[in-house]
Amino acid sequence: MSTPQAKLFIDHKEIPLSVYSGTQDDRAIDITKLYDEHHIMTYDPSLGNTAICRSEITYIDGGKGILRYRGIPLEQFDRPTPNFIEVAWMLIFGRLPNKTELDEFRSLLSEHELLHEGLRNQFQVLPAKAPPMAILSAMISMMACYYEEFLTVVDDQSIAEASARLISKVRTIAAFTHRRSLGLPFIYPDPGMRYCANFLHMMFSIPYRQFTVEPEIEDALNLVLILHADHEQNCSTSAVRVVGSAQANLFASCSAGVSALWGPLHGGANVKVMEMLESIYRGGRKPEDCIEAAKDKTNPFRLFGFGHRVYKNYDPRAKILKKACDRVFAKLKTQDPLLNIARELEERALADDYFVERKLYPNVDFYSGILLRAMGIPTDMFTVMFAIGRLPGWIAQWKEAHENPGTRIIRPRQLYVGNPETRYVPIEER
Ligand code: ACO
């Protein structure tokens, strides 16, 4: 069957362009030769409507609020919640693992959960109160100094080895960052514990008292990490792909992903949401003032945790997280007043024409912080938690690009709007 064509009419010329279809309803016009053959660019600042790759990992229908990992709807990861490591393996290797594959991967994670002493010693030279995302990005980048054998990965086994080091150590780095910020001794990982329980143990045990991990909390953490595990070509994943397209190694590429995620318009929004809810709780501002400030175009304030480039409907992750909050608080027989404030804000926003017309709904960051808070995770670690969850997605996307022989260095163009040719003026003449 021949490839469908679109036609571009410009300067009395007709230019045929191939139209590709995805496995769902998406279609994309191929403009790759447009500049070389006709000297015309496409203009798409912020790449809001440009498919930069073909991908088999994650599917989103933003209009309908659909999100699927390797074809599986996100809702199916809710209850019973599978293990985050199982989902990580699936994202990276393309299908659900069998028991042997999963056990082998788990063993690799346990084997590599300690930090190299050189890396651990870095904590002594960093300020104790350094931003956790700065530490995480630096430490992931520094892993390249200690695992040079993975600067080139050649097959599935070396990807599994490099991924296991990353996924396992990132959790140790995160917990050590938290401990150091409080001046507490590091608690070493326990190879007998599952991924999430082990993380909570490193965060909250003390040398003479083991932290008891409540099953509800372990489950909730598993769910939070799974819900963050991939989200196709978002800002941080695109950063990973851009860096990786220059054939930079996996550590350097994932470190770039952490840096992008840190921004308040992306993963850093979960911290901003919490600051907003806390300021309302402390009486600093009222919910209706936040809504009005977010609508005011002269005010840079945004309703954090609301709006999304792709979702023009309720973010399915937010829907699951909202339900999980109710479930966890009911099980723990506790309440968090911030949850009621969040619900009120949501209700007000969804009844307001400004938000309705622009199709602004809660995104993943709106309710995730409340759940993390219930686990005892401090606000300054929220974006780090997002990064732990997103790491398998970054690895999967890096691997997909790396294995595609058609991958070229990502190098967009620009529409130059600066000076025409201009004479250099020597300083004494200026
Ligand atoms: N509060 C108030 N107004 C908003 C918000 C918001 N949270 N989000 C979007 N808008 C408005 C914009 O001002 C714009 O209005 P206009 O058409 O009158 O100019 C319109 O809605 C469209 O918004 P854009 O900024 O053009 O949308 P874009 O796709 O570029 O940005 C983003 C998406 C960054 C997520 C934006 O909605 C936002 O800033 N949200 C708050 C930050 C946030 O929660 N980020 C996390 C996103 S999820 C994630 O990355 C994990």
Q: Main attributes?
A:
430 residues, mainly alpha, three-stranded antiparallel β-sheet, 17 helices, binds acetyl coenzyme *A
In short:
Helices cover 50% and strands 7% of the residues. The protein is mostly helical and 430 residues long. Helix 10 packs across helix 17 (382-403).
**Helix/strand order:** EEEHEEEHHHHHHHHHHHHHHHH
| Shape category | globular
Proportion of strand residues: 5-15%
Largest sheet: 3 strands, antiparallel
Mean pLDDT: 96
Number of alpha- plus pi-helical segments: 17
Separation, N- and C-terminal Cα atoms: 65 Å
Bound molecules: acetyl coenzyme *A
Indicate the low-confidence ranges by residue numbers: none
Number of strand segments: 6
C-alpha-based Rg, rounded: 23 Å
User: Strand sequence of the main sheet, in spatial order?
Assistant: 1-2-3
Task: Describe the protein.
The chain has 430 residues and is mostly helical. It is 50% helix and 7% strand. It is globular, with a radius of gyration of 23 Å. The relative contact order is 0.13. The structure holds acetyl coenzyme *A. Acetyl coenzyme *A is lined by residues 234, 265-267, 269, 294, 302-309, 358, 360, 363-365.
Topology:
Layout: E1 5-10, E2 13-21, E3 27-29, H1 34-38, E4 58-61, E5 66-69, E6 72-73, H2 84-93, H3 99-111, H4 117-125, H5 132-146, H6 156-182, H7 195-204, H8 215-227, H9 235-245, H10 250-261, H11 269-281, H12 287-295, H13 316-332, H14 337-350, H15 353-357, H16 364-374, H17 382-403
Antiparallel strand pairs: 1-2, 2-3, 4-5, 5-6
Helix pairs in contact: 2-17, 3-6, 5-6, 5-10, 6-7, 6-17, 8-13, 8-16, 8-17, 9-10, 9-17, 10-17, 11-14, 11-16, 12-14, 13-16
Bound molecules: acetyl coenzyme *A.
